[in-house]
Design goal:
This protein is mainly alpha-helical and 70 residues long. It contains two helices and no strands.
């Protein structure tokens, strides 16, 4: 979440700031990560539904164009 390649790198970089609370920090990071992933999944599902709807509309337009050309 902070842009580091791994969680270990993040904790190695900032862990000294909370030496006696690393479990709490880790739990909080995991909680926030879960929230972000849940939101991203919702957005992806919404985009997928929109894409399917648009694909159906394009197919209908192509079918109408083919029928008109025939």
């Amino acid at each position: 979440m902070l842009g580091h390649k791994t969680a270990t790198l993040t904790l190695d970089t900032y862990g000294h700031l909370w030496p006696d609370r690393l479990d709490e920090v880790s739990d909080r990071l995991d909680s926030q990560r879960s929230k972000v992933l849940k939101l991203a999944k919702k957005k992806a599902e919404k985009a997928q539904k929109k894409a399917a709807k648009l694909a159906a509309e394009v197919a209908a337009l192509e079918a109408a164009a083919d029928a008109a050309a025939a």
